[in-house]
Each structure stands twice: as C-alpha cells, then as structure tokens.
Known about the structure:
The protein has helices at residues 29-33, 153-156, 333-339, 476-479, and strands spanning 2-11, 21-25, 37-45, 50-64, 69-79, 84-85, 94-95, 105-106, 120-132, 139-149, 166-174, 198-200, 209-220, 225-240, 243-246, 256-259, 262-280, 283-296, 309-310, 317-326, 342-351, 355-356, 362-364, 371-373, 377-378, 385-387, 395-397, 402-403, 418-419, 423-435, 441-449, 494-502. The protein is mainly β. It starts with a strand and ends with a strand.
Amino acid sequence: MKFGVDYRHIASPMISAESPYAGYIFESSTAVATNSAQLAIVIQQKSATPVFHEVAIFAQDQWRVNSRLSLSSGVRWEIDPPPTEEHGDLPYTLLGSLGDPSKLQLAPQGTPLWHSSWFNFAPRFGAAWTVHDLPSFLTVVRAGGGVFFDSDNQLAVRGFSGVGFQAGKYIFNASVPIPPSELAFAPSATAPYTSDAVYAFPSHLQLPYTLEWNVSLEQALGSMQALTVAYVGSSGRRLTGTQEYSLSSQNPDFGTVFYFPNGITSNYQALQAKFQRSVAHGIQTLASYTWSHSLDFGSNGSELPLTRGNSDFDVRSNFQFGAAWDIPSNQTRLGKLLLSDWSADARILARTGFPVTLGGNQVVDPGTGSIYTGGVDLVPNVPLYIHGALYPGGRIINKAAFTLPTGTNIGTAPRNFVRGFGMAQMNFAMRRNIHLTDQVSLLLRGEAFNILNHPNFGLIDSTLTDATFGEATMMLNGSLATISSQYQQGGSRSLQLALKLQF
C-alpha cells in the first residue's frame, strides 16, 4: 500500500504590465507615408499575479496475486479551488442568471469565480497477466482504466483580462505616436461595462474529467523482438465550453460576456501496433502504426453553435519507423582508422490528412449578438475533390460540391468531413564518435531532413466565398507555428552538419 499527498503552488506574473498597448491599421501605403492610420486600438492593462493552489490525496495498492497475475488499484482525490491573486486583487464575475440578462449585476470584488467542488474522486485500476512465460515466446496481456481530472485554471486566468483589469478604446484617423491625452484612461469596474468584457463561470463549476481505458497484447518473437497490439480509448466528460453573449440590448450596463459552462463531451478510440527490435548485430528498430478516430463538439472553440463531428486533430492513420545501425568496421588497421565508430540513423514518418473546417456565411445570433462562421450546404452526387496536375498537390476541394446556406442556417455538410493533404518524410543521419583520449572525444554528425525531397502541402483555403477555396496555399512547414520552418516537419530537403567536443 502507498499513500501520499501532492500540492502545487503556482504564482507568477502571467498577466503582463506592458501597458499601454497600441495597434494601428493602415489601409494603404499613402496612409503610412502620411502617418494617418484609419484605426488605432489602445489597450490599458493592469498588472496581476494569479495564484493557484492544487491539492491531491492518493492511495494505491499493488497486489501480486500469483506468479502470472498482478493487479494495481488506487484512487485520487483532487481539490482545485479557483485562483486567487498575490495582492488580493481578484477578477470579477456576475451575480444573477444569464437567462434573465436585465437583472445581471457585477459581483463585488472578492466574490469567488466559483465554489470549489469536493467530490472529485478518481479511481484507477490495472492488471497484467502473463499467459506464456517462455523467454522466447513471452505473452503478456495488460488492461487498465481510470478517471483523470483536469482543471479550469487556464480559463480562470482570462478573468484577469476583463473588467477592472483591462480597458480599451478605438481612435479613428490616428497618428503615431498616440497623443498623451488619448492615453488618459484606466481599467475600471464602474458601470457601464460596455467597453470591457466580463468573464463569468457557473457558481458550482465542476472539474472536467476523462474516462480512459486500454487493453494490449505483447508477444515476444524470440529474445530480441516484440510485437504489441493495443486498443486505447478515452471519453471526455463535463468539458468546459465557451459561450459569448452581447447583452447591451437587454442590459445597458453590459456589453460582451463570456460564459464557461460544463457539459461538452469528446471521444477518442485507437488501434495501435508496435514492433520493436532490440540491439542485435548493431541494429535497433522501432515501427508503430495507429488507426484512430477522434470526435468532439469544437476542438478550438471557434465554431458556434457547437456541432458534434470529427475533431480538428482527427488523423486516421499514422505510421512511424526508426532504425539505428552501428556500422561494423574493417578489422585491418586502416579499416579501423577510417570506418570504426560510425553509426547511421533513419526515420520515416507518414500520416493521412487533417480535417478541413469549411466556412460559409458570417451569422449574427439574434439572441446573443454573437458573430460566428456557419457551415455550408452539401450538394448531393457531386465529387468532393477534383484531381489534376495543375492544382497544388494534385488535388483541390470541389467548390461545386457546396453552396452557401440560406438565412442563418448553419449548413447541411457534416463538420470536418473533408480532408487536407497527408504527410510523408524520411530523415537520415550519419555520425561518428572519435575518441581523442580516454576523457575527450569528438562527435561528427550530418543530418538530412526530408532526404527524398517529397513535397508536403499544408494550409488549405476553407472559406467557400474565396477565389482560392479548396486549394493548398502553403507548404506544410510554413503552415505550422514555429520560430523557424527550415527544419520543421514537411519542409523541403535540408542538411545540417554538427561538430561537438565532449570531455
């Protein structure tokens, strides 16, 4: 039996005091030359240091039933109260019900964002059964499952950018820099709050959690090789969604309110296979393949209203292979000098494409004032893709297969059912470790990324009204958010040489 307590205290200046901030919009080169911005956005931000306290108590039991069967069970009790602030400057929330906006009020500062929940118990269970125990034909079946809680701290931090902490204004026909007279304003918690967003939570917000389960079969193939096949599943429950309300027409004290209720779900299931060969004759390999399907109601929160469908990161097939080879050297004196301590590494990556979220009309919700991008209507019996050498990547999404919905309809096309381009790439490296002395060595390494220079296409224009709808507008490495795209996955062939002295 094992028992324990873990506690996390996080306090850091996560909300920057870089204030004021000004952003300018120039609509022409003439506007830049004459220092006449069509619009300037000025933001005053109050500094804040959120403080988080997270506590968990756990108990665990490991039981070796017999020489072939082992069981593991345990439970965690998670306690995750809303954040405080280092100087007692807490964010604001609401009093009242969004069902009756006319009676909403700003809660006094110090009102907790939500009341802590005390029944977050997370049981977990695992088992391992050795079916065959012959060293060259070892067979092990494993199974497990449990509950895993998340926290709402990431969303709670947004309150430190709302009313009382941030204030903004728009200045038309502005010049650089902004005159001091235009900066003479500060964040305020005095009504009306029409220029500042309010971030509100249910008073009894519950922690989101995930049910996870898995079962696997591991089979030894001789003493150096093993094959593993596994089924993995998870189901997100009580996930936190985002609702945006524009309440100025129903309550003159409020403008935009962001509300974060529980209730969203997700589901992920996967079949995984892995082959592993330990070092034998200088060669080590690892190959894995995953077929999976992921469903949710809006992976990145940008699609309103929520629609159940394929997740934005739903990749159906994913294959990876890696190998390392310690090259044997010639036993002659010259052979040892030139060929000893050389190694080669290879890696192959391949996957199918990510879904493409199609966008249609911009729709204003008459009840809340929220603006969202609706879906599109699917035209029956029309091919979804057009193939041809004149298109980037040899394929585009067929614009004729879709039409804009009428009125405020969100569209009949299923969410995320069309796909972008897959990815395939091979990387290769050669390295040599030269021992200069017993304590000093020199490591030479040359690496080639995408050595076959296979083209990988990335971002696809998903807005139906665009002239380039359905076409790839960027290569994959340029579509991924990184500091440098040179060595990013999906780029053109590139080489890197390294020399490292180790002592």
